[in-house]
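Quiz preparation item.
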């Protein structure tokens, strides 16, 4: 019986691991957070959507960057983006573009007592910057991880990591 008990525990453990596996790219959670990812980076890089950015982050948001350090607090983080946006000349191209590497996005649901409370979103993105000739050139490629929290009916980012920045070849 001891051998059967060990096998049963192993099977139950494996089933438990599958419950927290990456979300299928066709399920609602994956699609919702992929859309939120697009909204986030459009607001930060294209539209300067400061109100949108405020809505996407928790008040106690923390940003960890392997080259830029730690930024604590939503208002500080969004304030920096707002400052950059205020320096842009109207009608000009955005100085940088963020591109999500196709096929790199992964979403892992987080449960507590059987209830979905958050998710981890991981992916790879690259950046392009305007050069002096007004053309985009390749910049860094990096990994990112977002910890999303379900706040009522809204998904908000509580923690963000941006790391492994390397110059694209």
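Solution:
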């Amino acid at each position: 019986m001891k051998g059967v008990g060990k096998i049963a525990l192993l099977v139950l453990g494996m089933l438990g691991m599958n419950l927290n596996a990456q979300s299928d790219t066709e399920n609602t959670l994956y699609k919702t957070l992929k859309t939120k990812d697009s909204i986030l980076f459009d607001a930060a890089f294209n539209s300067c959507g400061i109100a949108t950015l405020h809505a996407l982050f928790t008040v106690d948001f923390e940003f960890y960057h392997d080259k830029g350090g730690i930024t604590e607090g939503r208002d500080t983080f969004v304030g920096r983006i707002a400052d950059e946006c205020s320096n842009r000349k109207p009608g000009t191209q955005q100085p940088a573009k963020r591109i999500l590497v196709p096929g790199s996005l992964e979403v892992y649901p987080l449960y507590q007592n059987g209830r979905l409370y958050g998710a981890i979103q991981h992916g790879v993105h690259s950046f392009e910057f305007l050069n002096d000739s007004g053309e985009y050139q390749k910049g860094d490629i990096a990994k990112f991880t977002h910890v999303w929290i379900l706040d009522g009916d809204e998904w908000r980012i509580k923690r963000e990591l941006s790391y492994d920045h390397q110059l694209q070849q």
